[in-house]
Amino acid sequence: MLADDLIHVGGHPIPQTREPTIFFFEGERAGLTKPRSPLAGFWALLVGGAALTILTLTLQPATDVRGCSNYGGNGNGTVFSNEIWDLLYPMLLLVWLLAVIVEQLLPVTWNGRKASLIIPRALLAIMVVLTASCYTEITLLALCH
């Protein structure tokens, strides 16, 4: 215990109580004084969305029924040139959703914000991911089936 932690009352040292820290160790609390970024809590949303957009453009899926692998025939086809993406693409969308949810649960995302801002920001991020994922999934994977 340091000398600064003691209060002297009547010649007797009394330990000074410290403010309890929540979710952080004593040394990490100083990091919370940094100005918060307006994008805190939206990094997984933005980076994951950009990565999936680039992946989708790179894979060049069919955007019309005539581009499907089963055009003119019957049975299930794929919008991608390789059928494995019919499994991997929805998995990547799910990973993106989980990354956004985990980011919303991190205390550093809440950095100095009140609950009245944390909850709507989290709901906004999760709803954007759900809407984008469902729209993409239905549009791409239901096109050729």
Could you explain how this protein is built, in words?
The chain is mainly α and 145 residues long. Helices cover 48% and strands 6% of the residues. The chain has a two-stranded antiparallel sheet with strand order 1-2. The protein starts with 5 loop residues before the first strand and ends with a helix. The mean pLDDT is 80.
Element pattern in H and E: EEHHHH
Indicate the structural class: mainly alpha
Helical content stands at 40-55%
Give the overall silhouette.
Answer: elongated
Q: How many separate helices? A: 4
Assembly context of the chains? single chain
Distance between the termini: 70 Å
Number of strands: 2
Strand percentage: 5-15%
Largest sheet: 2 strands, antiparallel
Uncertain segments are: none
pLDDT averaged residue by residue: 80
Radius of gyration: 25 Å
Q: Largest sheet, order of strands side by side? A: 1-2
Key terms:
single chain; 145 residues; mainly alpha; two-stranded antiparallel sheet; 4 helices
